[in-house]
Amino acid sequence: MRDGERGPLLVIAGLIVIGCLFQALDDNFLSPRNLSNLSVDIVGTGLVAVGIVFVLLIREIDLSVGSVSGLAGAVFAVLNVNHGMPEWLAVIVAIAGGMAVGAFHGLFFAWLGVPAFVVTLAGLLIWNGLTLDLLGASGTINIDEEGLVASLTSRHFGDDMAAYAVAALGTAGYFLAAHRKRARHRAAGMPYRPPVEIWVRTGVLAVLAFTAAYTLNRFQGLPLALLIFLVVLVVSDYVLRRTRYGRRVYALGGGVEAARRAGISVERVRVAMFMVSGTLAAVGGLFVASGLTSASPTTARAAGSGMLLINAIAAAVIGGTSLFGGRGSPWSVLLGVLVIQSVASGMGLLGVEDAVQFMITGGVLLAAVAADALSRRAAARRGRP
């Protein structure tokens, strides 16, 4: 906080407190079964939150992601179940629909100058209404429990080596990336981490990764949903941190006029970010439909009410992505969504009412935003002569 940066340590400390508290109240909280279910439950909201990160980085907001998620699930169910379209093709159409919706929002915002808040708020209502129309006033469409989409959340890799291999690959990847970054900074005369710190960080990551793998193997093994989520995080982080396009996104978040004077096509970047948000919202919606094995007007109304939206924004902000733009990463979503879903899981085990869960989630979100604002204020003070 004094340095003007809100790192992950505060969130990790919060996760430890949450785990200890709920384990003391119910010893099933840290059981392999509950933790494995938790690792699957975070994926739908987490994917939507990754899309939110892309939009937040350019100092904007997308309020339509909940409705877009519900629409994607409805489009898939209608095409596959009602019209007999193959699952793989229905999935492509649903995701392409989310991308098209994102492009629609981006064009109105970037080229017509309509505020993103207004465009996406209108989208929340439009796409939620379209979802209800597709499904019918009282219809519920059940998807094939043995099909492609249902397997997204039900499939597990039972071989113990699968989870351990992912843990080893992730640890080795971090170690190599950290050393490459150190070498580049050293060659450029920039500050860099000492080797001891890199080894310590790698060791801590290895302990966490292999502990998680061991826990998952004690139940059903590595969930396919979690593996897909981790791949999305790695690819998203690489795009934002290691490509020219990602640097343009951060530059735009730092200031529109400065980015424009640097030769960045502001309008194209803005449209692209909303397309990413719509695409990941659609993918997240398919995972939500997979967990429910159905699409219905009830779930569509729930999406339109904003809980998925609020949880996605909360996951991004709690993890460390700034509402003021220019700061954050997809990996922040992993910590944030773990906080949100851990609280929901713990209170579910204790039988706490939904009203209390809403209040607690809102309080955690408010605390995260306040911490972000305080860190910005601290950075501004340090920047003064």
Helix content: over 70%
Number of strands: 4
Share of residues in strands? under 5%
Which overall shape is indicated by the principal axes computed on the Cα atoms?
globular
Distance between the termini: 19 Å
Question: Keyphrases for this structure?
Answer:
single chain; mainly alpha; ABC transporter involved in vitamin B12 uptake, BtuC; 16 helices; cell inner membrane; transmembrane helix; ABC_transp_permease
What would you note in describing this structure?
- The protein is mainly α.
- The protein has a single domain (5-158, 220-379), classed as ABC transporter involved in vitamin B12 uptake, BtuC, CATH 1.10.3470.
- 77% of the residues lie in helices and 2% in strands.
- It has helices spanning 9-25, 32-57, 65-82, 87-110, 116-135, 151-154, 160-187, 195-217, 224-242, 244-254, 256-261, 266-292, 297-305, 307-319, 331-350, 354-383; strands at residues 141-142, 156-157, 222-223, 294-295.
- The strands form two sheets. A two-stranded antiparallel sheet has the order 1-4. It has a two-stranded antiparallel ribbon with strand order 2-3.
- It is globular, with a radius of gyration of 21 Å.
- 41% of the residues are buried.
- The model is unreliable at 301-305 (pLDDT under 50).
